[in-house]
Please model this.
Amino acid sequence: MPQLWDLPAPEAGFAERPNAAGLDALDLKALAATLGEPAWRGDQLFDGLYRQRWTRWEQFSSLSKALRTRLAAEVDLAWPSIVQSQISEDGSTKHVFELVDGKQVEGVFMPYADRVTLCLSSQVGCAMGCTFCATGQMGIVRNLTAAEIAGQVVAMLNHHDHPAGHPVNLVFMGMGEPLHNLDHLMAAFDVLTDPKGLAIPPRRITVSTSGLVSGIERLGTFARRPRLALSLNATTDDRRSRIMPVNRVWNLDALAGALAAFPLQSGERITLEYVLLKGVTDTLEDGRRLAAFARHFPAKVNLIPFNPHEGSGFEPPDEARVSALCRLLVDAGQPVSVRRSRGQDVAGACGQLVREGQRRGQPKEL
Ligand code: SAH
Ligand code: SF4
Model:
């Protein structure tokens, strides 16, 4: 029987007018040509969109008033809009984005001393059906476009008045399975990393997958690509297949093989995310098997205590167990960190805020 993720995820409907948001340098030159403008106008559009982060045509002061008026009449500048923002006690802010068709996704802005990390969504919903995940319970609604992926970054940086040049990390750990939407993801990656625009270095971008081996293999063929994280989350095929249906197609052996074959740059490591579910994935035997799995390739482990949500049926692990597993991995010589879930008090883990919004009615703006 074909699995849901064997099928292409539904795409956004076509708008009648062109949308400049999310277009790369070449497409913006082509857009300029359709307006009868020289190619270098495309460069000005690129600069305005991604270096200045302008979101309305009237802001494009580098263009003549006549051209701005024409653009406003003929070309959309449609980024996702922030419709709800919740500030967490730890300083992170969770945002709900509304897309042109009214669908919603989430992103998180996490400021640190030396950088800001943005957690991004890649799809509305998700086809992978992991049993512990709020997004998984929604099923797949549709892929995000490149504009909607890159637009989460533009919207969050603008919302927080983020100064250009201050380091930005991106992690695709919000809603959706990024490798199930690889074409749009890579189109957004090209725009986000372009040195003439937002200029986010590829090594600062991490894509997290549930273990879609076909996608891992394809990602490995790109010369410029983001870093890879795998949501391992269980250490036996039996357990993993029960909480992550994708494991019934690509099991732990297949995953270890694909990750060992993934072409890494010198010093690059694959992140292994491991969600700790009390009594399900958090035994000391799990810790030992996790350390053994991580020896197949250069890896760093990230332990993630489960973030509870209504109706999941899972519980977070005891604090003492988290520490014991962390120590076990350190003793095994394995680089390890524990994710102290940021934004937990505002329903931090992926999919939870949108789901709560749907339950309570429309979320309201801050
Ligand atoms: N679909 C991709 C990326 C989005 S999920 C993937 O699965 O990797 C990002 C991370 O959040 C994954 O590691 C997932 O296992 C984890 N996650 C999902 N629900 C969670 C929850 N309720 N508590 C803690 N982590 C969760
Ligand atoms: Fe999808 Fe990731 Fe959630 Fe699994 S954990 S359902 S792959 S978003």
